[in-house]
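Dear colleagues,

As part of the handover before I leave the project, I'm documenting each prediction I ran so the next person doesn't have to rerun anything. This entry is a single chain, and its sequence is reproduced below.
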Amino acid sequence: MLRELRYAFRALKNNPSFATIAVLTLALGIGANTAMFSVVNGVLLRPLDYPNASRIAQLNTSFTKEKRSIPRMTGPDLIDIRSGVSTLEQATFYYGGEMGVQMADHAEFVGTYLVAPNYFSVFGVAPTYGRAFENSDAKQGAVVSLPFAQRNFGSGAAALGQTIHMEGEAYQIVGVMPATFHFPHDANVWLAQTASPEGMWSERTAYNYQALALLRPGASIEAANAQLRTIGARLAAAYPDSNKDKSFLAVPLQEQLVGSVRTELYFLMGAVSLVLLIACANVANLLLARATARQREMAVRAALGATRATIVRQLLVESGILALVGGTLGLLLAFVGTRALTQTAAQQVGLPRLADIHVNWTVFAFAISISLVASVVFGMSPALQAAKVNLSDELKQTGRGLAGSSNRLRSVLVVAQVAFSFALAIGAGLFLRTFLALNAIDLGYRTQGMLVMYAHDPAHTLDEYLQAGRTIQEDVEEMKQIPGVTAAAAAMGVPTGQYGSNGGYAVDGQDFAHQTHMAQADFSLAGPGYFSTMGIPLLRGRDFNANDTYDHGSVVIISESAARQSFPGKDPIGHEVECGLDAPKWMTVVGVVADVRQDSPASKPGPTLYMPLLQHPYYANEVEVVMRSAISPTALIEPVRLKMRSLNPEVAVKFTTMEAMVADSIAMPRLQLVLVSLFAGLALLLAMAGMYGVMSYVTTQRIPEFGVRMALGATPRTVIALVLGRATQMALVGIGIGLVLAFSATRVMNSMLYGLKATDAVTYAFVLLAVTPIVVLAAAIPAWRAARVNPVVALRNE
């Protein structure tokens, strides 16, 4: 084996151009696959980094009649589950998001979650400094992440005992979690709450909590769900007004976190695998050409006693060396590719478990494995072809049989390359049309020239909340005076933003408390001038004004969809609506506005209730201030930040733009488009290289034939047509197979597209017209060379 390794290295060293092309081709295929696998491994395959990870489940509420579930739960339902499901060792809750946290001399927007005292014990993770929560810490204890502690207090140890404020309440830091603990993914501050819900959080119709459960050792998720269904049926009988047709579902935490992206990631892994297969086919073509050129060498080896198995082994060793060198280079490319993927996903997609994506030993083993498998895939056929040597003919230099067999195999490999690349091009075309459709759709509001400032003014009592709302409204008026700002308004629930709520509502005296199937809508709050600032048309009635305050009659503006849903054929102005956003109260409809796409361009316009900010003070201190600008919105960030700091330094602020928010909401389609287009482009380049290589080799072999044809009167155009005709034949066969591959993926693709089907004829026709000439033209240079053959020289050589 050592002798064969030395010979293989010497043979490759003597043919550096061949070795370089083969290694680079494999490195691209293996590197792309390894980078994509590192994402799949980190997100989907690798267990969560918690000691109790395999026993942690998320508790969801399931609506059996509607056949849907939500990852939230009411407080009373959670209490009943905690006491009535024996398969659960313990259950906990959390709620929150990005909120303003005040330190001694500054405020910061940070992921902040209010949790039950037993929250960390469910995970089984201990703090690096200090301790976890105890029951006595309720509403006064805080645990922070190590990065937060270092950023604000210098170190983890220095953070212990420090006081932070949130919503006007003081919390003392009792523990610092390790930097590797991040649940939820953006959490940096955890604040202890009472173990049982209080106040408005204790309603059976208020789905305010997300709940986690720790299964008892040996208990299965199936057994837990059986008990949850039982308790769901019992609660439905006991509380028919709130729990009819409602049950509960435990989902393993890892599945809950990554289930929404599983299909997309596996699809992308399958797409990049086609690139590797194309790369293998390309290298196999190179090896076939080299094997044909080495037939005399193999004949000499056979004459000196080498068996067919020896020859095959020697050639497979050479293939293995190519694959391992290509795999090593591919692993280096994978480091770069993985970093690019994670940075893109962190900035745009919000991919779960980003911190778990690494090029680790599992990824290294994957790279080595696919390198070895690739060496067999592309090396076996050329090795077997080379081993079928006719000793007598080759030693006489008259052998021709293997060349014909080799050409047929090389043509098959080119057809496979064209098929795979065409299927990828179809995917890229479909994603392109989806992305264009999402960007061209009418959102119902303005995005250009819009700056969005998130602002959180701390408050604790009703008077403080009322004052915070008035302060925010005064700040908005100050924002209007900044040069470049042409309009400004405050809101809670700006489309594609972080805030907002939804739920059921009643109309015109319906019994809100005992109504089982209420109409559903999004809930948003808005200050005066919000609709005109956002460019949302007011269709009927009036906008909110300065008189719509807490001590005046409650009013509401509804969207077109809500008007059609609740007041079909009627004028909704003057009717009354009640919802459960905070304290139930009847609100008079004073206006109707056009629908907007609330969650993303892909979401359908739906019913929305808009309420005045100052009439709902418990939400009026944490708002989005939207500003329309005559200049670049980003140029306003620093002037607005300085203005807010001078007006109220305790208000935590952060900035974005409406265009960025909308772009983030369609980040996954954009990532799919970029990656699949990249894979398709690489695949087409490899397919063109394969077509060029085959046609160049075949054309060289047919030089004598072309000489005879031209001597008998054939024109250069006729010769070019012969070469391009063969290339077109292979391309069309490959495209036909590619169509079958594309059709076979339609079921998966349909779930990732918007505005069209995976069988969209326009996309198929466009890709067909674009790809066929590209692949066929790869044979243009060999065809041109064939047409310039001198018949006299060709016949003399023959």
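Residues 459-649 form one domain. The chain is about 50% helix and 20% strand.

All the best with the project,
I.
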